[in-house]
Amino acid sequence: MKQFLTVVVLSLLALPALSQQTAQKIAASRDRRAILEILKRQTDDWNTGRVDKFMAGYWNSDSLTFVGKVGVTYGYQATLANYKKRYPDRESMGTLKFDILQLDLLTPTIAYVIGRFHLTRPEIGDTDGHFTLLWHKIKNRWVIVSDHSS
Length: 150
Hints:
4 helices, six-stranded mixed β-sheet, elongated, Nuclear Transport Factor 2, Chain: A, single chain
């Protein structure tokens, strides 16, 4: 009987730790899903020619960084302007496809994504490359704070 009570007491002491781990796993799963949903929405927006809506996945801040083939761009507005300049019409935008290779939640508010993009553009030629996205959860919303695409 004494052993039984010891097991019961130890089990009850372990419950809070187990429930906290479960809550953390649920939160991490929810955050992964949120990030993947944003990337899916960006793909849909890009493929319908809505660059302004595509940019909703980015942090609307002068501190946003975008690193591309031509160097570093600072700020949301400058990044949007570069997208519009580089992809002025549906033909140049093509059809976007993302392949997510890695998605790591480094902390409850920081995530890191590595992926591959492919633009199908029948008239002017396809293009593809890789990207690294640093995400930050700001005001309970995941946003891209740094994008390195090449």
